[in-house]
Amino acid sequence: MTCTNKVTSHPATDSTALNKVNGVTFEQAAAARQAASGNRCRREIPDFAAGIERHALARS
Hints:
This protein is mostly helical. It has helices at residues 13-21, 26-59. The radius of gyration is 17 Å and the shape is elongated.
C-alpha cells in the first residue's frame, strides 16, 4: 500500500521580508522548502511507518 499526503505552505510576512533583503525570490524559497521537506520525509517516514507497524503487531 502506498500513501501520500499534500502540504500547502504559505510564507509568513517576516520570511518574505527576509527573503527580499537577501535577494531570494519566492520561487527560490519555495523550491528550497520543497527540497528540504521532501528530504526529511524520505528519511523519517519509513521509520515512522515501521513504528506504527510494530505497535499494531504487538497489539494483535
